[in-house]
Design brief:
The chain starts with 22 loop residues before the first helix and ends with a helix. It has one domain: MetI-like fold (Orthogonal Bundle). It contains ten helices and no strands. It is an all-alpha fold. Helix 3 crosses helix 4 and helix 8 packs parallel to helix 9. It is flat. The longest helix is centred in the C-terminal third of the chain and has 39 residues.
Length: 264
């Protein structure tokens, strides 16, 4: 009879360890597409309003061969990248100032809280009056939409850095600059990157809305034109393209997180 005191206890704390199953998303997408294709071929989904995935792929291939697809993607990406970079730089800067300095927090927090709920696409007509119908008005709309969630995420991330780490650095005589770059910035980086995931999604939404209002090229303009002409296969192709663009951005952010947060 074995001694209960010497019986090994199995590890039970692995249930909350982050992990991924690489095959799971591919299987999920394959099942969704298979069910969609089967429902379309069986006549359960009318092709006039919901074309089959094969028809959508044919529409995408035709747009790629024609060259229009790359034109629309390039126009949208140019606006997204420009607006996201401007909004992110300004948002991270203000968020850090609010998280570190009492005066910046006292002034910035109520202002951000008051302006954040305003739908940014509603300001596009105003930006058109200020900057014209061209690219600056669309970039400004995206930058403003990215700015506010970035401010909130950066401020929250800085504010949530453990104070005992900052006090320990101060007790070792580190300068303010060293504390910011060696303690606060690494501690706040996970929250900032999480905010980037939200802001990139907002940028994608705003670029589509802005292009639908005042643009001849771009994914939003393409989707609007396809809907007006009842070209449902091309409309869904544009929606699929937006989904693929979002997945690509998410994958790039995941790679960035692995590089930047490799210390975790």
């Amino acid at each position: 009879m074995s001694d209960p005191a010497k019986t090994p206890v199995s590890f039970r704390g692995a249930g909350f360890v982050p992990g991924t199953r690489r095959w799971a998303p591919w299987l999920a997408f394959a099942l969704i597409i298979a069910c969609w294709e089967s429902a379309s071929r069986l006549g359960w989904l009318p092709s006039l309003f919901m074309p089959a995935p094969s028809e959508v792929m044919n529409a995408l291939h035709a747009l790629l061969v024609d060259g229009k697809l790359l034109v629309h993607i390039g126009a949208s990406l140019k606006r997204i990248v420009s607006g996201w970079i401007l909004g992110s730089i300004a948002g991270v800067t203000l968020g850090f100032l609010m998280g570190i300095f009492v005066l910046a927090r006292s002034v910035g927090l109520p202002v951000v809280s008051a302006l954040f709920p305003i739908p940014k696409i509603a300001l596009l007509p105003l930006f058109i009056l200020w900057f014209g119908i061209g690219e600056p008005s669309k970039v400004a709309t995206i930058a403003l939409g990215v700015f506010f969630p970035t401010v909130v995420s950066a401020f929250s991330a800085v504010d949530n850095v453990p104070r005992n780490l900052i006090r320990m650095a101060q007790s070792f005589g580190l300068s303010t600059r060293m504390i910011v770059f060696k303690v606060i910035l690494p501690g706040a980086m996970p929250g900032i990157l999480a905010g980037f995931r939200i802001s990139t999604s907002i940028a994608l939404i705003l670029v589509v809305a802005a292009e639908m209002i005042g643009a001849d090229t771009g994914i939003g303009a393409f989707v609007l034109a396809a809907g007006n002409l009842m070209q449902i296969d091309q409309l869904i192709a544009g929606v699929v393209l937006l989904s693929l663009l979002g997945l690509t951005v998410s994958a790039l952010l995941s790679v960035t997180e692995k590089i930047v947060l490799r210390w975790r």
